[in-house]
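Reminder to self: keep the SMILES exactly as supplied, no canonicalising. Ligand is zinc ion.
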Amino acid sequence: MYHPNLIRTDETRHIDNCPALVLNADYTPLSYYPLSLWPWQTAIKAVFLDRVNIVSTYEREVRSPRLEMKIPSVIALKQYVRPSEYPAFTRFNLFLRDKFSCQYCGSSHDLTFDHVVPRRAGGRTTWENIATACVTCNIKKGGRTPAQAHMRLRLAPIRPTTWCLQENGRAFPPNHLHESWHDWLYWDVELQG
Ligand SMILES: [Zn+2]
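Structure tokens returned for the bound complex:
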């Protein structure tokens, strides 16, 4: 979901595939959705500006006449930044709020987005008016409201808090994480189910 091209062989890793996971001063990720990642150039710049501590590094090095250093894989801000209470309104976050399941039938296949109040009836594209729906339910509902279509939403669509998405995210870990990041993320197999 985040960096599909990340590969595990560290020394041969392409330099553009060396983002740093950015932790807040309390060593929790600065943000989860999207995951706070900086390109290596930004990370190294922050190191030299003395704004971050290096927590972990890749094997890959950068060299210049004045500099030779391993690329940071995890950095922590020296100054605490107050996390935002609400996550960004993105397709991924919307699926995550709805736990990747159709809000009408519960299916987890062929998911798309449904305007609860249809656009032609003035329905807007907001957290409160978009629900995850499978293609079948979406077609069945057509340009009608749930009441008109006699279809019930399992949960009323609401704007989730960052905390709420983090809770849901534990069950849906992204696939491509560098091993040095694992200790700093909450995703925990035991918490699934
Ligand atoms: Zn459905």
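Points to follow up:
The radius of gyration is 20 Å.
Residues 1-9, 188-193 have pLDDT under 50 and may be disordered.
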